[in-house]
């Protein structure tokens, strides 16, 4: 039995689950498992729809296997959902996703709209979505390893603007630069390649490339007036800036032990966390930068990188490789959810306009199975619509990518 399937038997709702085991390390089957409703997600029933990305936008398709193949390219250059989160307005009914190299998708229930911006997205890597006063903010940069446009003479010219922080106006559906890398450093050929915002102060990692070396510098800054009123024209005179260092930046970005994760997450994943290894990005809806937590399975279950027993066709025990699962989680005002890369979704609380699930106890469902070498990555929930990003992955490269839309009213609430 796969590790993912071992863990789902302790929850109340599941899709396409098989149970088996080996020796003392297999989980006992839930006696009530046969009485659990088996939730169908057939397209004909309108429970879910597949979408894939093109250079022009996104298109609907019957199944992932039918998505046209594309060459694998580094993830920094691929069209994919690179970051996503929910806002807190209108009963947490609005959400956004950054589509690398393309634009922003706005989700509102079953409505979804792509806002493209060639000037900002075409030759830059975009991600790191956060919110300030319900306004989505994200960052962009150019990769020194994979982006050929940095070899252009215009890139290193004195007047070249190296964009950094961008705000997206939900009303006009337009993206506006707030601060450029040039506002933070006088060094040419520089990019803000990563940042952390704690809700007050910003800590940035700046990468500068010359013909002879590559340097990293770290700074802290905060606006002296509302950040959303700034632009690259006036930003430098309206921010307070002071030095940081590598250790400070790493401390804000480092992976923390799972015991320090928010209590709502640990409660929701209580059974799951004891039985497998995973790292999880935890976000707050409408919030600042997220933190990552690493869970190590309890004694008796194989840690990441080692092995766990499984049953072969002859019924004997053998060793199979076990790796650490990746997950993302969102803490909203009335609900919490976590999506693992294999498609296991945990949910607790109440979605907008709906009753509390199982009196506040967590439920688990399995998203539609993806082909081999495909994984689920990020997700949002808008109203009762779940949007889960998927992509074809090979080491640091990405092939096909898109998202699945799932009607939780039909697949979840109608069954409870």
Descriptive account of the structure:
- Mean pLDDT is 83; it is low at 1-41 and 300-321.
- Helix content is 8%, strand content 42%.
- The chain is built from six helices and 27 strands.
- It is mainly beta and 416 residues long.
- The longest helix has 8 residues, at 246-253.
- Strand 19 and strand 20 (317-321) form a beta hairpin.
- It has a seven-stranded mixed sheet. Strands 1, 2, 3, 25, 26 and 27 form a six-stranded antiparallel sheet that branches.
Sequence of strands across the biggest β-sheet: 16-18-17-21-22-23-24
What gross morphology would you assign?
globular
Q: State the helical fraction.
A: under 10%
Tell me the number of strands: 27
Major beta sheet summary: 7 strands, mixed
Specify Rg, calculated over alpha carbons. 22 Å
Strand percentage: 35-45%
Distance between the termini: 27 Å
Backbone structural class: mainly beta
Mean pLDDT: 83
């Amino acid at each position: 039995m796969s590790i993912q399937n071992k863990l789902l038997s302790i929850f109340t709702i599941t899709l396409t689950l098989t149970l088996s085991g080996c020796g003392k390390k297999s989980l006992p089957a839930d006696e009530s498992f046969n009485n659990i409703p088996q939730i169908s997600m057939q397209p004909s029933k309108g429970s879910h729809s597949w979408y894939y990305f093109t250079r022009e936008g996104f298109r609907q398709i019957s199944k992932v296997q039918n998505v046209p193949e594309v060459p694998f390219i580094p993830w920094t250059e691929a069209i994919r959902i690179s970051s996503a989160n929910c806002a807190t307005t209108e009963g947490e009914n609005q959400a956004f996703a950054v589509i690398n190299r393309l634009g922003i998708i706005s989700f509102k229930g079953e409505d979804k709209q792509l806002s493209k911006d060639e000037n900002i997205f075409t030759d830059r890597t975009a991600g790191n979505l956060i919110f300030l006063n319900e306004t989505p903010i994200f960052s962009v940069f150019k990769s020194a390893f994979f982006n050929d446009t940095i070899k252009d003479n215009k890139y290193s010219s004195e007047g070249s603007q190296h964009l950094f922080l961008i705000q997206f106006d939900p009303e006009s559906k337009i993206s506006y630069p707030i601060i450029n890398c040039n506002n933070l450093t006088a060094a040419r050929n520089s990019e803000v390649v990563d940042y952390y915002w704690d809700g007050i102060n910003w800590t940035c990692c700046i990468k500068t490339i010359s013909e002879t070396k590559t340097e990293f510098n770290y700074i802290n800054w905060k606006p002296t007036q509302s950040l959303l009123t700034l632009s690259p024209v006036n930003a430098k005179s309206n921010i307070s800036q002071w030095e940081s260092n590598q250790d400070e930046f790493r401390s804000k970005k480092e992976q923390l032990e799972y015991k320090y994760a928010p209590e709502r997450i640990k409660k929701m994943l209580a059974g799951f966390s004891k039985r497998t290894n995973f790292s999880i990005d935890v976000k707050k809806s409408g919030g600042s930068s997220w933190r990552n937590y690493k869970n190590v399975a309890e004694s008796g279950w194989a840690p990441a990188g080692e092995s766990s027993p499984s049953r072969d066709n002859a019924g004997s025990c053998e060793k199979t490789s076990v790796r650490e699962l990746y997950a993302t989680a969102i803490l909203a005002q009335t609900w919490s959810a976590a999506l693992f890369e294999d498609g296991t979704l945990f949910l607790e609380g109440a979605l907008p306009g709906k009753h509390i699930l199982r009196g506040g106890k967590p439920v688990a469902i399995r998203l539609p199975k993806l082909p081999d070498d495909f994984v689920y990555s990020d997700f949002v929930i808008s109203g009762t619509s779940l949007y889960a990003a998927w992509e074809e992955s090979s080491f640091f490269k990405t092939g096909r990518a898109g998202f699945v839309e799932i009607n939780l009213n039909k697949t979840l609430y109608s069954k409870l």
